[in-house]
Amino acid sequence: RKEVEQDPGPFNVPEGATVAFNCTYSNSASQSFFWYRQDCRKEPKLLMSVYSSGNEDGRFTAQLNRASQYISLLIRDSKLSDSATYLCVVNNQAGGGNKLTFGTGTQLKVEL
Amino acid sequence: GAVVSQHPSWVICKSGTSVKIECRSLDFQATTMFWYRQFPKQSLMLMATSNEGSKATYEQGVEKDKFLINHASLTLSTLTVTSAHPEDSSFYICSARDFEGIYSNQPQHFGDGTRLSIL
Question: Averaged over A20-45, what is the pLDDT?
Answer without folding.
Answer: 92
